[in-house]
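[[Encoded backbone]]
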Amino acid sequence: MKIIYHCFGGSHSSVTAAALHLGLLSKDRLPDGQELMALPYYDKTNNDDFGSIHFMGRDEQGNEIYVLGKKSLGNRFSHLLMGVAEMLGKEDQILVVNVMDRVNISMKLGGFTSRRISMPFLGRPVVIRGTQQAFAAMINLVEVIKIRILNKTEVK
C-alpha cells in the first residue's frame, strides 16, 4: 500500500506525520528542533515542490510512505488522487491522509514566514514550537491510520 500524507506546503505537518509513521521520530517523547530539522523535507521545500510526491520510506509492513504539499486544495486533493487511483483500478492500494486539521496557528505562521517569505531565521523557531505543540495530535492521527491499514490488510 502507498500512504500519502499531505498538507499545505509538504514541509512540516505531513513530514512530521510520515516520520512518526516510519519511526523516524519517537512517539514517546517530544522531538527537539534538531531532530525535526534532521528529517527529510522538514522546513526544506520551496514553491517548485508543490504538487510533487516525495518518498519518505517504507514502514514495518512494507507500505510506502510519501509526503506532499498541495497548497489550499484541502480535501479536494484527496478526492482527486483517489479518483485517479480508481480510474487505474488501484484505489485499494492507496491511502491519502490530509494532515491539515492537526496544524495549529504557530505552524501556519512559522511555516509561512520560513518557507513562503523566505525568512527561516524568524519562522523556523515558531514552526518548530508549533510542531511540538501539535505532536500529540499527530501521533493520534498516525495511530488511527496504522489501524486503518491493518484493518484493510486483514479483510483481504
Notes: The chain is about 50% helix and 15% strand. The mean pLDDT is 90.
